[in-house]
Design brief:
The complex is a heterodimer. Chain A is an alpha+beta fold. Chain A is 41% helix and 16% strand. The two termini of chain A are 29 Å apart. By secondary structure, chain B is α/β, with parallel strands linked by helices. Classes of the chains: A alpha+beta, B alpha/beta.
Chain lengths: 486, 245
């Protein structure tokens, strides 16, 4: 193959741009995925008061500001060496659970779901929320919108604002939950549980009862054997808000379990000259390139990864759903990337059940919502599970309490290497010598990356529901032979 | 024919578009009244014109500048949606550092392939008809603007400082709680949600047109703060304020 250098400037255009390079015989030589992502938050936070960090960093992403707000607030707890009160922790986790319910709902029904609900061969015009509504019916569609709306209301009520909440303070939160609001949240929480159960049933009826879908889930084109990462509680159950980061190897055996402050001993970031996104990998395994297997430090941090990395779910019905998934797919760990959609629904149920538990907790309306920090801030790390992967915020303060150093490992970034590998593998399986390159290639390539819900795709909460995607295919001489755009 | 409405995103978090989309059921009525022709990127093959173009995000590359100028040519009314487009937003924090340094931190050795320009609000490059401030803007304000545009009524921004709405919400003054609040000099219209949630105003809606300077001076003196402190606080969301028109 002729070596082709890509000018990174061209990679800044558009969202989700994929370039595929072919060998002389027409098979796939290499694939490049280009994501415009970085805006320099680590640099421009420098010199700002540390208390501003929950406000600044959540502007990275309007889709998941709650995750950044929470990781930043936890990093502040750590910087001030101040544990939040028990009520404050519960209020934070309550908001975070509502956030998971709305985020996972959005992904399943509006972003990732259309692939499954409509089927991979359905025309693009139908592979969107409107197509989904037509197929699942207005009643369920109304429930989807209502679930989003009600949980947005919880976020607004508890966090102060719906997009970019403000309630996080070192040592606690800024606002109590009133009894009146608690009652309303409890009603919503009950509806959430019903909705999550219904969503699993929809998945069962539409996807699992259709053999061709199941065959696709378990096909080699969408499989990678990697390490898996996720936060777990002290019983090794999945937790989104707090705990230790656990990593299991491709056989499912615990490889590492670390506290937030130990993240640098466990994760390093690889840089490629052709890409401006970094590729985190497991430091103790090492970077061996874009390959899977036990010898490669590539790991994944997705809903499926969290389930693989844990011993189970902390709530009863989510645990049942968890067991059913592993039973159906042949035990732990599951390496089928497309099963991530299923795992997301198991997590949806867990988030719904956890929200209900928290809102029924006697402490939730308690008055002790903050421990005022008494120490001087120095350095701190905060980790939460963002819906798209383990999110790490690390800050160092100067003498004046301003940011001296800031390091962020953002949800999607964890999965960059695996995402790249998944697209390449799908392209290799789909583009073969002598075979016509069809428009449905676009759909299938999209299916390879949708499970990761990379951040630029989640930003396409647009009404027509189409994702801007461009695939360019070059022959061995570097000549563009096909361009698929939508 | 229904008015054609388009949304264009530049550098930002897209939270403004989400704020609009999260109207959920309320948006259905609005959608019935307009024709949304673009909700993401200005594709090169789109030649249509827009009656109302919403610009989200700030302009941070030369390409952004050219693109926003093209949109201006095709747009009847151009609305700057949110803090990034109005006053630079948090992106303008990068203007405090040399551009080469920003590139180096983000791209490392590959920095030589990239260029970046200081963050600018939309009005630095094209005429902006309406500024909808806030990070994100208040959804009721967005609805009210669209209604005004549809019915030909004049749209008025809120001219009170956040403080007025905060008093109406019967909040304890954030200064009394020891916070440094920008509510006295920030444009209202947000119902003082942040102070109501037990925090303070960070000034995301930019300074109000005619602040009560005397009362602000008194307040600053009382709490031992200076005008520079206020300006520095405002930088969080309004770092490019001085170049906006």
């Amino acid at each position: 193959m002729r070596k082709i250098t890509i000018d990174p400037i061209t990679r800044l255009e558009g969202h989700g741009k994929i370039s595929i390079f072919l060998n002389d015989d027409g098979s796939v030589a290499n694939v490049y995925l280009q994501i415009p992502e970085l805006r320099g938050f680590e640099k421009f936070s420098e010199g700002r008061p540390i208390e501003d960090m929950p406000q600044i960093t959540q502007r990275i992403c309007g889709v998941c500001p709650e995750a950044h707000h929470m990781a930043a607030t936890k990093a502040l707890d750590d910087m001030f060496h101040t544990e939040p009160t028990s009520t404050a922790k519960k209020i934070r986790e309550l908001l975070y659970s509502a956030f998971y319910v709305t985020d996972h709902t959005t992904h399943f029904y509006i972003l990732g779901g259309p692939d499954f609900v409509m089927g991979p061969d359905a025309p693009v015009a139908q592979r969107n929320i409107l197509g989904v509504i037509a197929k699942v019916g207005m009643e369920l569609a109304g429930k989807v919108l209502n679930t989003r709306k009600e949980n947005h209301w919880i976020i607004q009520t508890v966090g102060g604002r719906q997009i970019h909440p403000v309630f996080g303070l070192p040592g606690g939160v800024s606002k109590r939950i009133s009894e009146e609001d608690r009652n309303q949240i409890e009603e919503i929480a009950k509806r959430n549980v019903e909705f999550a159960l219904l969503s699993l049933k929809v998945f069962n009826d539409i996807v699992l009862k259709n053999k061709s879908y199941v065959d696709m889930i378990t096909s080699d084109a969408f499989t990678h054997k990697t390490y898996y990462m996720g936060l777990v509680d002290d019983k090794n159950k999945v937790n989104f808000y707090d705990g230790k980061v656990r990593v299991v190897d491709p056989d499912g055996k615990e490889f590492a379990k670390y506290a937030p402050r130990e993240y640098l001993e466990n994760v390093a970031e690889h840089v490629e000259p052709w890409s401006y996104t970094k590729f985190p990998f497991l430091k103790k395994v090492g970077w061996k390139g874009f390959v899977d297997g036990k010898d490669s430090g590539v790991y994944r941090a997705t809903p499926l990864s969290r389930l693989n990395a844990a011993d189970g779910m902390a709530t009863p019905r989510a645990q049942e759903a968890y067991e059913k998934m592993y039973e159906t797919l042949g035990g732990k760990p599951v390496h089928f990337t497309l099963a991530t959609h299923w795992a997301r629904l198991v997590e949806l149920l867990y988030a719904a059940e956890r929200l209900l538990e928290l809102v029924q907790d006697k402490e939730i309306t308690g008055p002790n919502i903050r421990n005022i920090p008494a120490n001087k801030p120095d350095e701190g790390v905060g980790i939460v599970e963002a819906p798209r992967g383990t999110l790490t915020h690390h800050y160092v303060a100067d003498e004046m309490g301003r940011i001296k150093k800031c390091n962020l490992i953002v949800g999607t970034t964890n999965n960059q290497a695996a995402l790249f590998m998944s697209i390449k593998k799908a392209a290799q399986a789909l583009i073969q010598p002598g075979k016509e390159i069809s428009e449905s290639l676009l759909n299938q390539i999209e299916m390879a990356w949708r499970p990761y819900d990379p951040c630029m795709s989640c930003s396409t909460h647009n009404l027509p529901g189409t994702m801007p995607l461009e695939v360019t295919i070059f022959d061995a001489g570097g000549k563009e032979i096909k361009r698929l755009v939508r | 024919m229904k008015p054609r409405v388009a949304f264009f995103d530049f550098t930002g978090c897209e939270g403004c578009q989400l704020e609009v989309l999260n109207f959920n059921l309320e948006i259905v009525d609005l959608i019935g009244a307009v024709d949304i022709v673009e909700f993401r990127e200005a594709s090169s093959d789109h030649s249509e014109e827009y009656d109302i173009a919403f610009i989200e995000g700030s302009q941070t590359t030369q390409k952004d500048v050219e693109r926003v100028q093209k949109i201006r040519e095709k747009a009847g009314i151009l609305v700057a949606l949110g803090a990034c487009s109005c006053t630079g937003g948090v992106n303008a924090l990068k203007n405090r550092f040399p551009m080469e340094e920003n590139l180096k931190v983000v791209y490392g050795d590959a920095a030589k392939y990239y260029t970046t320009i200081p963050t600018r609000p939309t009005s630095a490059y094209v005429k902006v008809d309406v500024h909808l401030h806030g990070c994100p803007p208040n959804r009721n304000e967005v609805i009210s603007l669209v209604k005004c545009l549809l019915t030909g009524k004049k749209f008025e921004l809120c001219h009170n400082p956040v403080c007025v709405e905060c008093k109406l919400a019967e909040n304890v003054c954030a200064f009394e709680r020891g916070e440094f609040c920008l509510g006295p000099v920030t444009r209202g219209g947000c119902n003082a949600v942040c102070v109501t949630a037990g925090r303070k105003c960070w000034g995301c809606r930019a300074p109000v047109d005619e602040p009560n300077i005397n009362s602000e001076k008194e307040l600053l003196a009382k709490y031992g703060l200076t005008v520079d402190d206020v300006l520095n606080q405002f930088k969080l969301f309004n770092g490019a304020l001085e170049v906006s028109k």
